[in-house]
Protein: Adenosine 5'-phosphosulfate reductase
Organism: Candidatus Paenalcaligenes intestinipullorum
Amino acid sequence: MSAPALAPELLPAVAQRWHTLCSDLQAIARAHPDAVFANSLAAEDMVIQHALARLALPIQSFTLNTGRLHEETLALIPRIQERYNVHVHVLEPDPKTVAAHVDAHGAYAFYDSLELRKACCHLRKVAPLTQFLQGRSAWVTGQRREQSQTRAELHAVENDTSFGLRKFNPLCDWLHDDVWQVIRHFQIPYNPLHDQGYPSIGCDPCTRAIRPGEDLRAGRWWWEQRDSIECGLHQSPIRHTSN
């Protein structure tokens, strides 16, 4: 699914979502001065990045460079820094741990079993994120309920019991077209792979373009069962909170 060409003016419902997002981010910044934003460099996260910049909020942005990302994805980092005059902190896995895993199992072991795929995700994503989040009180993500069945019960505010902090998902009820209408309206930079049929973009070997009628995350780990399509960042036991 490519990025849809939508009307240049925001529809009222989408404009309200945008204003709510800005208000939510301001409230998060007030309540959690140490909050950080996980920018996966996907379309959803670029909307949040744009809002943070427009509001000049002190929420630090970071991204995970797994060592297997598309060139188009990595090229978005300097575009963000130039457009918004912000620093995107890049997290990377421990090179010795990655080398040991590859030596033991091969560079493409994640195709062989779910266990090896999750092990690869853990050392390239979960481990550096765990270290980065240690001691913080909150993080912000661009997850949406519409993305997959594993996110259907997503809440705007959650207690992330895996990382031990508050987790905010301010786009949880946004639709695919909402995201793209805001991107077009504000001319927000985005990953060009979205125009090539990649609505969800992860590591290069683990991501493909989707086919007509497939769900938005069908291109992620497509060789696995649909109930396993998470990398471990958002699959921990999470308890909802209304506060």
In short: The chain is about 35% helix and 10% strand. The radius of gyration is 17 Å. Confidence is low (pLDDT under 50) at residues 1-6, 236-240.
